[in-house]
Amino acid sequence: MNPHKRRRIYLMRHGSVTYFDAAGKPYLPEQVPLNELGRAQATAAGKIFALEKLQFDRVIVSGLPRTVETATLVLEQTGQPIALEQWPELEEIKGGKLSAIPDEALKDAFVGAFDGLVPEHKQFLGGESIGQLMDRVHPCIDRLRADKSWDTVLLVLHGGINRAILSYALTNQRLFLGNLAQTAGCINALDVGDDPADWVVRIINFSPPSLLQGESRNTTMEVLLDQYRKSRPV
How far is CA 233 from CA 2, 22, 23, 39, in A? Predict the structure, then answer.
């Protein structure tokens, strides 16, 4: 019998990847693997889980290589041979064609979708809108919560997806809080009860390799914008 009133969701962002080459040319985001830092971040997270002797009942990833690799490295540390469940509905928010974005609209296209309380019509990199993102994320989380067969689950997903989940948990509304930072390889902890409004947010953006996150004050999308601009010399 479960002694706890609530069940626990550990929500991770995948480890660091390289989205652009040295000249600012993009790699296919559906295929990029973890880089050296990303593998170290995933391993560090796994060591934290192992230290706490945590046992997962289920491990869910989006299916994109960077989530699969992160989850695999975490499980190597915890010593649990759990088959990964792939939920493609939880793939990262989808951008459009970068070359189609005019120079004057670049900044808003990169950072606007993660800026404060984001309106539903706002598009990410000229592609999917925040409303479309919530349309696919919220039903997934509702379905996961409705399944009472698990007590502790690990989700290894993406920065935009994690923001949608955290916003849902914090507000219990159809809102998207874009300024919830999600450092690569970070861990969030959410407790859920039987009532749909019963969310308890325990931990947000805990980064095992960088506990105080002092190395940068830029957002992920600000960094990526600077990298991409190298391919568009003025």
Answer: 59, 13, 10, 32
Mean pLDDT of successive 10-residue stretches along the chain, which has 234 residues:
82 96 91 96 98 97 98 97 97 94 93 95 96 98 97 98 98 97 97 96 95 88 92 80
Residues in the chain: 234
Q: Which two tokens stand for residue 85?
A: 């469940």
Give the DSSP H or E segment for 10: strand 7-13
116: CB partners within 8 A, 6+ apart: 177, 178, 179
Distance in angstroms (rounded) separating the CA atoms of residues 154 and 136: 19
| Residue 71: CB atoms within 10 Å | 27
Q: Which amino acid is at 120?
A: E
CA 70, CA 75: separation in Å to the nearest integer?
9
In this prediction, residue 212 carries a pLDDT of 87
Ramachandran class of 53: left when φ > 0, alpha when ψ lies in -120 to 50, beta otherwise = left
In the chain, helix, strand, coil percent, each to 5?
A: 40, 20, 45
Element (H, E) at 157: strand 152-157
Token reading at 34: 């973890």
Q: What is the pTM of this model?
A: 0.95
Candidates 117, 102, 107, 211; CA nearest to 164 is: 117
Task: Put the strands of the sheet holding 187-192 in their side by side order.
Answer: 85-86, 58-61, 152-157, 7-13, 187-192, 199-206
Identify which of 200, 169, 164 has the alpha carbon closest to the alpha carbon of residue 182. Answer: 164
